[in-house]
Amino acid sequence: MNLVIFGxxxxxxxxQSIKLVKEFNLFQLSxxxxxxxxxxxxxxxxxxxxxxxxxxxxxxxxxxxxxxEKKVSTPxxxxxxxxxxxxxxxxxxxSLDDLLKKYNQKMSLALNLKVNNDILVKRIVGRLTxxxxxxxxxxxxxxxxxxxxxxxxxxxxxxxxxxxxxxISKRLKTYDEKTFPVIDYYVQKGIMKNxxxxxxxxxxSEQLITIIRALRG
Length: 217
Ligand SMILES: [Zn+2]
Known about the structure:
By secondary structure, the chain is an alpha/beta fold. The chain has helices at residues 13-24, 31-41, 44-54, 61-72, 90-102, 117-125, 165-188, 201-216; strands at 2-6, 27-29, 81-84, 107-114, 127-130, 136-138, 157-158, 192-196. Helix 4 runs parallel beside helix 5 and helix 6 packs across helix 7 (165-188). The radius of gyration is 20 Å and the shape is globular. The mean pLDDT is 90.
C-alpha cells in the first residue's frame, strides 16, 4: 500500500520513515531526492532542473509530476511507496491521486506525527552535544553537568548555532500553516491517522507499525 507521512521539523519523521521502509519493504520517495537523482544523471531533463534550482526558483509541479510518474509506473514500486515531504499543497495532493489512479493504485493511509510546538521548541533549543563523543543531551529534559557516557566525562557540551527559539518557532508556525490544508484533504478522504509524536521513538514506531498492519489485514 502507498502512504504519506507528515510531521514538523524535529518530530522524527525521517527516522520513522526509515523504520517503516525496513519493516514493510517500502520505497521512500522524497521529491528532493528525486530532483537530485535526475540532476546527477546529467540528462537534458536533469540539466533543465539544475538550471531552475540554480536560479533559486521553485521547481514547477509539472516537472515533479514527471519524476513521480517514473517511479509510480515502475512495477517494483507499485503500492509500496511512502511519500515523505510531498504533497505540500492540495493541488499536489489531487494530482498525486490522479497519478496513482492512472496506474491502478491509491493512497491508502496518511500518517500525521502530532506534536506540541512548545515542547518541540524546548527539545530543539535545549539540545546540547558532547564535544568529545557527540552524545546529545537536553537542558530541559536531560540536563547533564558533564557527559556521563562511560570513558568520556567531557565537560564541554556545545549547542548548534541554528537551534534558537525564534527561528524554530517560526519554522513550526510556517509548517502548521502550510500543511494544514493538505492534512485536512486527507482527513476529508478518511485516511488520516494521527499519532502522538511526543512519545519515545520506539513507541511511535510501534504505533505506526500497528496502524499499517491493521490496514493491510
Ligand atoms: Zn561525551
